[in-house]
């Protein structure tokens, strides 16, 4: 009997363009010693991103699973979606409770731009150029100025100039070898994560340029963040609500800006206890979605790890139930610990940035803040050790279960 081949959707090709980063990497090699810590504390892990090697093939494969209607990557029995929290940790930059970058100002304030670059107003205005349909500063000029600051030992100015170049060439590129006004504006705002995430979604969704607004659906990220997906999401939670090019609809762009002023933050108390298990109702919904969307490649056996099979009638009931409940308690404790670790890391990150704005405070307040920082460090280390202890204890229980199974088999033989 002939086997009917499985229907698949067509794959598409994405082109990945990356500017040569040789000049920026050479500058980053000058950031050493105590100045490296200063740079990271002020601008995050931009130097790590600068030197990261990207393999386009895994990205090409991942993008074939993009689900444009749901704004996520839909696989055969689960979904993934980039989130603000993940990007914040990746960049080591906090998400500020403020309106993110929406558009460049209509007029260029050379005083503000010059202050950000540690340059004179005349230097900025004389070198301010246009490239394509954007304005800004040529990379060649900024590299030359940064090298001069490094020779003088003016590391505060050097760090700012290098960070702006990374924003304009790596994070928010517009034209080759050019740092445009939009990148400078994002840098000045100090809240790049929402824009970075939006650029990711918009570029994947439109398959070209990144100058637009788009929504994503955080409800689809609950499982990957460790929460339970009890039922399928409501239609209103996964409907397309925003997708347009910025210049095409200025009125709606203002509406998006107003919406950012009323953002609500939900924590674990609202979302429920962390326990990353797959509820059949959600899994069935994902599989039904796959039947409609189709997959770009052949299906594979599920990679979900199944719990060890223990026949309760072959094992003393009290041993079986004790091991089962203890295993469940350890998993819950581990998930709680991981959540506390994430919160502690986020608090530490936010606090580190708050320290920078404390100029003018008296010494006693600074000392108190430093003590709080050290307490967070201590808590983080303790929670990490507790997480490792729980993982080891879980492995020991799994070994006991396997030993018990072996004893029962030997007894049967």
- The percentage helix is 55-70%
- Count up the domains: 2
Mean pLDDT: 81
The tally of beta strands, per DSSP, is 8
Distance between the termini: 42 Å
The stretches of 5 or more residues where confidence is low (pLDDT under 50) are 305-313
Report strand %: 5-15%
Evaluate the radius of gyration: 26 Å
| Global shape | globular
Order of helices and strands: HHHHEEEHHHEEHHEHHEEHHHHH
Oligomeric form: single chain
Q: What is the count of DSSP helices, taking H or I runs of 4+ residues?
A: 16
Q: How are the strands ordered across the major sheet? A: 1-2-3
Structural class: mainly alpha
Q: Main beta sheet: strand number and arrangement?
A: 3 strands, antiparallel
Domain DUF7745: 24-208, 209-291
Coiled coil: 366-410
Pfam families: DUF7745 (PF24924)
Keywords: Coiled coil
Q: What does the secondary structure layout of this molecule look like, with pairings?
A:
Blueprint: H1 22-28, H2 33-43, H3 46-50, H4 56-63, E1 66-67, E2 72-74, E3 79-80, H5 84-91, H6 110-117, H7 121-127, E4 129-131, E5 134-138, H8 139-152, H9 155-171, E6 178-180, H10 181-189, H11 192-206, E7 212-214, E8 243-245, H12 250-260, H13 268-271, H14 280-293, H15 317-356, H16 363-412
Antiparallel strand pairs: 1-2, 2-3, 4-5, 5-6, 7-8
Helix pairs in contact: 5-11, 6-7, 8-9, 9-10, 15-16
Polypeptide structure, described:
This protein is mostly helical and 413 residues long. It folds into two domains: 22-271, no CATH class; 305-412, no CATH class. Helices cover 55% and strands 6% of the residues. The protein is built from 16 helices and eight strands. The protein has helices at 22-28, 33-43, 46-50, 56-63, 84-91, 110-117, 121-127, 139-152, 155-171, 181-189, 192-206, 250-260, 268-271, 280-293, 317-356, 363-412, and strands at residues 66-67, 72-74, 79-80, 129-131, 134-138, 178-180, 212-214, 243-245. The protein has a three-stranded antiparallel beta sheet with strand order 1-2-3, covered by helices on one side. A three-stranded antiparallel beta sheet has the order 4-5-6. Strands 7-8 form a two-stranded antiparallel ribbon. Strand 4 and strand 5 (134-138) form a beta hairpin. The longest helix has 50 residues, at 363-412. The radius of gyration is 26 Å and the shape is globular. The two termini are 42 Å apart. The relative contact order is 0.11. Mean pLDDT is 81; it is low at 305-313. Pfam families: DUF7745. This is DUF7745 domain-containing protein. Keywords: Coiled coil.
